[in-house]
Amino acid sequence: MTTEAHTESTEATTAAPTGVILTDVAAVKVKGLIEQEGRDDLRLRIAVQPGGCSGLRYQLFFDERSLDGDVVSDFDGVEVVVDRMSSPYLAGATIDFADRIDAQGFTIDNPNAQNSCACGDSFH
């Protein structure tokens, strides 16, 4: 999956108790991708890992695991999982899906990101 920093969201959103928000468009895309996998045990996991030119990098992937301290939110039947270490970095972040000429893939608008690199792949 592709990720990039994004500053605006045009779709209606639903707030999660964790503060992570998955737009309706992103939820539909995630649901479709999970259906393509042919599995009903997968959830979207969002994590923050060290890396990239700005220090921290987003990771979005499908996961069937449940880890101690995971925060799970449901968005119209799509479970979004954030590990306890990543949760503070992602509070208030909006995950969207764009399919435009200027942006394609999953985008993350994170109010906690003080700076991001020019490619939008990492933040600080």
From TrEMBL:
Domain Core: 22-121
Alphabetical list of Gene3D superfamilies matching this protein: HesB-like domain
Entry superkingdom: Bacteria
PROSITE patterns in alphabetical order: HESB
NCBIfam families linked to this entry: iron-sulfur cluster assembly accessory protein (TIGR00049), PRK13623.1 (NF010147)
Protein name per its UniProtKB record: Core domain-containing protein
Source organism of the structure: Winogradskya humida
